[in-house]
Structure formats: structure tokens, C-alpha cells
């Protein structure tokens, strides 16, 4: 099984719940606190491709800073730049094995990475 990178914000209850799900299964994770170590455009582009989800799923569009930016969510480049500028806009948590990635909404959704492992 490939190493799973867990994009984590310890202040988020869903992120803590997701981490606990993996820990309860003794799954080794590389935890990345993305607020401390933000993703760059290249990393975000790859992550989006592995999510196989619409761009809007990657963004916390209810955040005040997102609303203030007045960005068209269909503009992928500008949206990813906004996440780089303000990492709080990245949806959380996310588990990524380098081939597939899942957003933990609900946290159990990330356990799909364990399927066919």
C-alpha cells in the first residue's frame, strides 16, 4: 500500500475524526498540517486530479476570505492561486495515496483508500 498523505487541520473536528479512523485501523499516515506547510499550485493541481471531483469540492466556499475574493469557481487557475494565498480555503480533511484522494466529508469517505489495498 502506498503511503497516505493526510492533509490535516487539528482545529477541525472532521479532520480529527478522520485521523482517528485511520489510527484505529493502524494505518500509517504522513500527516501534513497544510496550514503550516501550504500546498503549491503544482501540488494542488495533482491533488485535484486524484480527487476526481469538481474543483468546487476542493474549496471551502463559505469562508469569508473566499467570498471577499469574488472569484469565479470555474476559473481553475485563479481558484488554486486563492488556496495558495489562503490555505484555510482548502477543504479538509483529505487523504491521498498518490493515485487516489478523498475528501473526508464525511470522514468515513476517506476509508475508500483502503479498498483493494
From TrEMBL:
InterPro entries: Arsenate_reductase-like, Thioredoxin-like_sf. Signal peptide: none annotated. Belongs to the ArsC family. This is ArsC/Spx/MgsR family protein. It comes from Franzmannia qiaohouensis.
Amino acid at each position: 500500500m502506498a503511503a497516505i498523505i493526510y492533509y490535516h487541520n487539528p482545529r477541525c473536528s472532521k479532520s480529527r475524526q478522520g485521523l482517528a479512523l485511520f489510527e484505529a485501523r493502524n494505518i500509517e499516515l504522513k500527516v501534513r498540517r497544510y496550514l503550516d506547510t501550504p500546498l503549491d499550485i503544482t501540488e494542488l493541481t495533482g491533488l485535484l486530479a486524484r480527487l476526481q471531483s469538481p474543483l468546487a469540492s476542493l474549496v471551502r466556499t463559505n469562508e469569508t476570505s473566499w467570498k471577499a475574493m469574488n472569484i469565479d469557481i470555474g476559473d481553475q487557475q485563479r481558484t488554486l492561486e486563492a488556496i495558495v494565498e489562503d490555505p484555510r480555503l482548502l477543504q479538509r480533511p483529505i487523504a491521498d495515496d498518490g493515485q487516489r484522494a478523498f475528501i473526508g466529508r464525511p470522514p468515513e469517505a476517506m476509508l475508500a483508500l483502503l479498498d483493494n489495498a
